[in-house]
Amino acid sequence: MTMSELRGKEGADTKPTARATTTVARRFAVARWLRYVLPAALLLLLLAAGLLAYRAWPPEQKASVAVTPQLASVKTFEERFGLRVTLVAVTASGGIVDIRFKVLDADKAQGTLQDDKNMPILNVEGSTITPMMRDTAIQDQDLEVGKVYYILYSNPRGMVKPGTPVSVAIGDLVLEPIVAQ
């Protein structure tokens, strides 16, 4: 009930009662409180729902079928993928791992690197490291036999140091460990 409604009921010259004034003041206080608290509560509720949805969402890199990687010799790796790993090196003050590979068979190498599932990953002490570059950085190139290409990987927590054995894995094959420089 507003002040003007109270005046209309009680008469133009009379003042509202203390009880009516207190009721009106309470309503205004509740309305003012709801104006700030209700949007904040809704925002917190939406953030909590978003966090739960994010945590429940399955990661994209989850394999539908668990594949047990097989350790491959350099020769087997080269014959299957048409690539020879020539260098594993730690660069950028230890923040990046640089993998260099030479193309031995352009068709096999292109076929391997055209498939996102076959982008080389690094296995280091039971952990895997994926490339920093976007997947199409190498896919967009016409690979040439004899030419050396590179893929950059982040080096989380400095896992790879010079002297660390690193295995390069493509699909279900893992190359014998190579000592990082």
Major beta sheet summary: 6 strands, mixed
Q: Can you tell me the residue ranges where pLDDT is under 50 for at least 5 consecutive residues?
A: 60-66
Rg over alpha carbons: 33 Å
Mean pLDDT: 77
Number of helical segments?
5
SSE-based structural type: alpha+beta
Strand runs, count: 9
What's the end-to-end separation, in Å?
81 Å
Helical content (DSSP H or I, runs of 4+): 25-40%
Question: What name is given to the CATH topology of the largest domain?
Answer: Immunoglobulin-like
Note the beta-strand portion. Answer: 15-25%
The H/E string reads HHEHEEHEEHEEEE
Q: Please report the first level of CATH classification, the CATH class of the largest domain.
A: Mainly Beta
Features:
single chain; 181 residues; alpha+beta; Immunoglobulin-like; 2 domains; six-stranded mixed beta sheet; 9 strands; 25% strand
List the helices and strands and how they pair.
Layout lengths: L2 H8 L7 H39 L13 E3 L1 H8 L1 E9 L4 E8 L2 H9 L6 E4 L2 E3 L6 H4 L8 E7 L10 E6 L2 E3 L2 E2 L2
Parallel strand pairs: 1-8
Antiparallel strand pairs: 2-3, 3-6, 4-5, 4-7, 7-8, 7-9
Short description:
By secondary structure, this protein is of the alpha+beta class. It has helices at residues 3-10, 18-56, 74-81, 106-114, 136-139; strands spanning 70-72, 83-91, 96-103, 121-124, 127-129, 148-154, 165-170, 173-175, 178-179.
Walkthrough of the structure:
With 181 residues, this protein is an alpha+beta fold. The chain folds into 2 domains: 3-56; 70-179, Sandwich (Immunoglobulin-like). It contains 5 helices and 9 strands. It has helices at 3-10, 18-56, 74-81, 106-114, 136-139; strands at 70-72, 83-91, 96-103, 121-124, 127-129, 148-154, 165-170, 173-175, 178-179. Strands 1, 4, 5, 7, 8 and 9 form a 6-stranded mixed β-sheet that branches. A 3-stranded antiparallel β-sheet has the order 2-3-6. Strand 2 and strand 3 (96-103) form a beta hairpin. The N and C termini lie far apart (81 Å). Mean pLDDT is 77; it is low at 60-66.
